[in-house]
Design brief:
alpha+beta; Leucine-rich Repeat Variant; Endonuclease, Chain A; 3 domains; 4-stranded mixed β-sheet; two-stranded antiparallel sheet; binds zinc ion
C-alpha cells in the first residue's frame, strides 16, 4: 500500500535519485551526491556514499569527494553509512592519502564495529598502494636540502606533511610542528600579505611579489575541469591580460596535467609565465625576469 507520509515519499525520491546517479555514472551530479551524504535519512546517505564510489572511474573532483566521504566515515551515527563511505573512499586512493591519519584512527578505534574498522584499514591500504605506484618510477629529493632520498623517506614525508623530506629534515620538521594537526591544516592554506588564501609557499611568494609592486592580480583557488584537465590555482593579471602558473609538483599525473594545460594556454593564445618549485630558491628573481618581458616593473 502506498504511503502518503510526505517524509516517506521524500526519502523514496532521494533514494531513487542516489541510485540513479550511481547507475548512470552521472559525474556532473557529484556535488548532489555529496549533499545527499548529509541527508537526514540514513539509507539515503548510504546509497549516496555507494554512488560516490561508483563515480570514481569517471574522475569527479576527487579531493572534494574524498573530504566528504572521510567526514561521513568519521561522523555518521550509522555504522553502515560509515562502512559504505570508507568503501567508496578506497576507490579514491590518491585523494584518500590526505586523510590517512583520520583513516588510521578509524581502523584502530575499538568503539567502532569490526566491519567499519576493516573498511577503514582497507582504505588505508589502498591509499598507500596507490602512492607507491605513482611514485615508484620517479626520483625524489628533500624539499628542504635537495638531497636525493629513498622511497621510505619519501613516503613518510608525503604522509606527514604532503612533501618529501630526508630523514634529517623530517625530524627537524616534526620538531618545528608543536601541534601536528595544526601544521597539516596550515599547509592547506597560506595567507599572503594582502590576506589572500593560497595553497603553497611558492604561490604566497608570487602573490606578495605582485602586491608589493601594486600589480593587481586575481587568484583562483578552485579546482575546475577543462575537458579532462584539472585546472590548478592560477594568477591572472587583468591589467596585462597575463597568466602566472606555479607548478608545485612533478609526479607523473601532475606533469601530464601540466603539459595539457600548457597546451590549452598556447592554443588559446594566452600570455603565460610558468614557474615551478625548481625555481623556489630564486622565485622573485625569476618572476621579475619573466615579467619584464611583458611589463615595465
Ligand atoms: Zn633534507
Amino acid at each position: 500500500m502506498a504511503s502518503h507520509d510526505p517524509t516517506v515519499a521524500e526519502q523514496q525520491r532521494l533514494k531513487a535519485r542516489a541510485l540513479e546517479i550511481g547507475n548512470t555514472l552521472d559525474v556532473d551530479a557529484e556535488a548532489e551526491l555529496r549533499a545527499l551524504l548529509q541527508s537526514p535519512y540514513p539509507e539515503v546517505r548510504r546509497l549516496a556514499a555507494s554512488a560516490l564510489g561508483k563515480l570514481a572511474p569517471r574522475r569527479p573532483n576527487e579531493f572534494l569527494v574524498a573530504e566528504a566521504l572521510a567526514r561521513a566515515a568519521e561522523t555518521d551515527d550509522r555504522p553502515q553509512v560509515r562502512q559504505y563511505a570508507l568503501k567508496a573512499l578506497a576507490k579514491y586512493p590518491r585523494a584518500a592519502l590526505a586523510h590517512l591519519d583520520r583513516l588510521r584512527d578509524l581502523a584502530r578505534n575499538p568503539t567502532l564495529r569490526d566491519y567499519v574498522r576493516a573498511a577503514a584499514a582497507e582504505a588505508v591500504a589502498a591509499a598507500q598502494q596507490a602512492n607507491r605506484q605513482a611514485y615508484a618510477r620517479t626520483h625524489h629529493w628533500c624539499t628542504r636540502c635537495r638531497r636525493i632520498i629513498g622511497e621510505e623517506d619519501f613516503m613518510q614525508g608525503m604522509e606527514l606533511f604532503g612533501k618529501p623530506y630526508c630523514r634529517h629534515c623530517l625530524d627537524e620538521r616534526i620538531l618545528e610542528s608543536k601541534n601536528f594537526e595544526l601544521v597539516v591544516d596550515e599547509a592547506k592554506k597560506k595567507r599572503t600579505e594582502d590576506g589572500t588564501a593560497v595553497q603553497s609557499q611558492g604561490e604566497r611568494r608570487i602573490a606578495d611579489f605582485l602586491s608589493q609592486r601594486r600589480i593587481a592580480y586575481v587568484y583562483d583557488e578552485r579546482y575546475r575541469m577543462a575537458g579532462d584537465v584539472r585546472i590548478r590555482p592560477d594568477f591572472y593579471l587583468p591589467e596585462f591580460d597575463l597568466y602566472i602558473e606555479y607548478w608545485g609538483m612533478d609526479t607523473p599525473d601532475y606533469v601530464a596535467n601540466m603539459k595539457k594545460k600548457l597546451f590549452l594556454y598556447q592554443r588559446a593564445g594566452k600570455k603565460l609565465i610558468s614557474l615551478s618549485f625548481r625555481d623556489f630558491d630564486r622565485l622573485e628573481t625569476i618572476l621579475a625576469e619573466k615579467l619584464a618581458r611583458y611589463i615595465r616593473l
